[in-house]
Amino acid sequence: MYDRILVALDDSASAQMALGEAIRLAKLSSGVVYALSVVDRGRWPAEANARFDFEPEPSAAASAATRIFEEANALFKESGVSGNVRAIDAYGESVSEVLARAAEECDADIIVMGTHGRRGAQRFLLGSVAESLVRSTERPVLLLRHDGSGGHAQA
């Protein structure tokens, strides 16, 4: 079934739902969950001699990733599922491109991610990482939409 399950994590309720679903799939198939958080601290400089300044202190996103990974590891242990956590700095690359490449690297059988289910002008203005990911990968993608009313998901 699914031996390698990549789950995209951020600091959202929909991502927590996706992690729960990834763990459920892993339990059913004795698979491994690869939990990934994409952190974007900025772009590489365009000029060859330019200096790239990293943030001296951990960013809020990096701190959130640490907390998210602690929670994921606790859920892996509690559920008896094998799991790995990893943060990748996008360096200005789109989150969907980073996720698609990570899925290739770990040879994921499926990608699980939450989505906010934005529509209309809000989706147009903010874009959709989920939609872009579905278009940029040949791997199956399971999207779980958080409806905002207490944690119910729609797949």
Report on this model:
With about 160 residues, the protein is α/β, with parallel strands linked by helices. The chain has one domain (about 10-40, about 55-95, about 115-155): HUPs (Rossmann fold, 3-Layer(aba) Sandwich). The protein is about 40% helix and about 25% strand. It contains 5 helices and 6 strands. It has helices at about 15-30, 60-80, 95-105, 120-125, 130-135; strands spanning about 5-10, 30-40, 80-90, 110-115, 140-145, 155. A 6-stranded mixed beta sheet has the order 3-2-1-4-5-6, sandwiched between helices. Helix 1 packs parallel to helix 2 and helix 3 (about 95-105) packs across helix 5. The longest helix has 20 residues, at about 60-80. It starts with a strand and ends with a strand. About 35% of the residues are buried. Mean pLDDT is about 80; it is low at about 120-125.
